[in-house]
Amino acid sequence: MSNNQTSGTAGGGSSPPRVAIGDFFRQVRQEANKVSWPSRKETLITTGMVFAMSILAALFFFLVDWFISNAVKLILGLGG
Q: Is the pTM of the predicted complex or chain greater than 0.85?
């Protein structure tokens, strides 16, 4: 552990070192540059897949709900 870090125990009495606001934003920019950002094509494909899977899940649950509802109505004799 370096001298700048605390042990993380309660009641240690020391607070974490403060970072100047300019240094903070410089560090944020450095970390953001390390991120592997997806391309526009990858983003569009994954967005489309999310929409498709959401629609499939909605249809699945609609059909399961409809089936169970009709089965309960049939069993209880409420199905007209």
A: no
